[in-house]
């Protein structure tokens, strides 16, 4: 017995697009067990230079230290997640780079999204730079 609503829906078949995945792992030359994993997901029409989803994860022997993920939508907007040890920041930007939505796990940071977003971006940039320096 099927519901009338689900008769027209083809729930049994997969409708999500399958994305190809490419991962690269960098090992820190200075700190043992410290790794940076860069993973890119792209569809057949895309390329590694313009992936649909991209993640950077810095890990040590006990797990992830920091993580950055970015998803690009067809209209050019972008959803970014920054996971730091003490905070998680989620940002939705339009195709021009303007912040359309902002959410932080630290409640007082939600009052000043532009400033916190710049601080988190600089922190992630610094961690990535220090990994390779």
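-> sequence recovered:
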């Amino acid at each position: 017995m099927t519901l009338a609503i689900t008769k027209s829906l083809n729930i049994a078949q997969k409708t999500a697009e399958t994305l190809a995945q490419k991962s690269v792992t960098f090992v820190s030359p200075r700190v043992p067990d410290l790794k940076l994993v860069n993973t890119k997901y792209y569809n057949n029409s895309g390329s590694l230079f313009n992936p649909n989803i991209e993640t950077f994860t810095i890990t040590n022997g006990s797990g992830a230290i920091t993580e950055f993920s970015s998803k690009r939508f067809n209209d050019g907007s972008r959803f970014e997640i920054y996971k730091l040890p003490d905070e998680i920041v989620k940002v939705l930007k339009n195709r021009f780079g303007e912040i359309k939505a902002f959410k932080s796990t630290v409640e007082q940071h939600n009052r000043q999204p532009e400033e916190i977003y710049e601080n988190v971006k600089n922190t992630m940039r610094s961690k990535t730079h220090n990994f390779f320096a």
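The chain has a mean pLDDT of 85.
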